[in-house]
Amino acid sequence: MLLKAVPRSRNFEAVLLFWVAGIHAFALSQIQLAVNQVMSWDMLLYWAPPTVSAWILHYVLRKYALNADGLLLPLAFLLNGLGIAMIYRLDLAEITRGGTDLFAERQVWLSCFAMLIAAVVVRLIPNPLTLRRFPYLAGAGAVILLMLPAAPVIGRTVNGATLWVGIGELSFQPGEIAKILLAIFFAGYLVSRKGPLSEIGSRVLGMKIPGAKDLGPVLLFWVASIGVLVIQRDLGTSILYFGLFLVMIYTATGRAFYVGIGMVMMITGALVASRLFDYVGSRFESWLNPLSQENYTAAGGSYQLVQGLFGMAHGDVIGSGLGSGFPQLIPLAESDFIFAALGEELGLAGVFAILAIYLLIVYRGLRVANTHQDEFSKLLALGLAFVIGLQVFIVCGGVMGLLPLTGLTTPFLAAGGSSLLANWSIIGLLLVLSDSSLKRVSA
Known about the structure:
Elements: H1 8-36, H2 43-64, H3 72-96, H4 104-124, H5 135-147, E1 155-158, E2 161-167, E3 170-172, H6 174-192, H7 194-198, E4 202-204, E5 207-209, H8 216-232, H9 235-253, H10 256-276, H11 278-288, H12 293-297, H13 303-315, H14 338-371, H15 375-399, H16 417-442
Antiparallel strand pairs: 1-2, 2-3, 4-5
Helix pairs in contact: 1-2, 1-3, 2-3, 2-4, 3-4, 3-14, 4-16, 5-6, 6-9, 6-15, 6-16, 8-9, 8-10, 9-10, 9-15, 10-11, 13-14, 14-15, 14-16, 15-16
């Protein structure tokens, strides 16, 4: 009777969760057999807690968001489980060579916490329109979070990027939460200013452009993005925030001018920064000439990028197999370069599958935006979906040598609590938005 009392999407979600849990168990067992030549019950520590957490979130959806999208949770859980499996595989390699830097167990409990936070989001925000009342509060919170890494006592610089806040042994990347607050702020601001921002001020070279006062937001946020680039020393973070703004302002106004002028301003700012700041210039130089001896051996140079590229090349089309490659040779394979580690052991086919999963998550988010009649919810869903897609593009593009490397992490896959917390919160918000859109349609 329970299965008949709920929409098909919830039952479909339950079936997919069974399959994903099975895939996760298979990956862990395959890794144990390949590395240790024997299976042990230790595998349950890395399988059971996240699986239970995913089912708790599923239960919360059945109780409080019956009409929520049925694919978002299984897809995100699949990526999260795959990330745990690869980090566990790297831990086994670390143990084999006598190391003590282990991350898998911590990643398991961080994943559980992040999924439970998503459940809290679903429970406490039944109506996403409540967020519309606090756009400037969200904007102020984002600014404070972005400035925290620059604080003299708690700010931390890791691999040249000042993205972290540390208190004792605990560290946190506030920019991950800031991207959610920025999406809320942009959605609220752009809905309230949609009319003036859409108006035509004059024509320049045949192009219709808005008035000078309405260009203020673009100029202001461009300056803010360059400020992020200078303070946090990371081009990817700056591009992520500015790209989010451009997509949302274009969606709100339908004016391609904003995208065009924004891209010109961002590229110009990045090129100027590469000349003025050594740390930005070195990233560009390592990207453009990764195999040069000088860049390869320099501190913070292209060694990591080259090792990742060689690893993915070794994986070929079908990969070396889980547990059978050498991803431990890639620096920071558990975090910044987990995509390269997976590329080596799963091959090009596995890389395409992972990117397809991300594409499906973005598609489902855009579908939620498309079904909403409310402008704020539409913009918020689009912004949240786009920020995941853009972050994946920036990170994976950097790992594959298509873009300069950044301090961003691969959503759901990479080790780190900040990224997990932020991206599972995004999933929670998208689930709430999808549920509210269907409720409005049925009403």
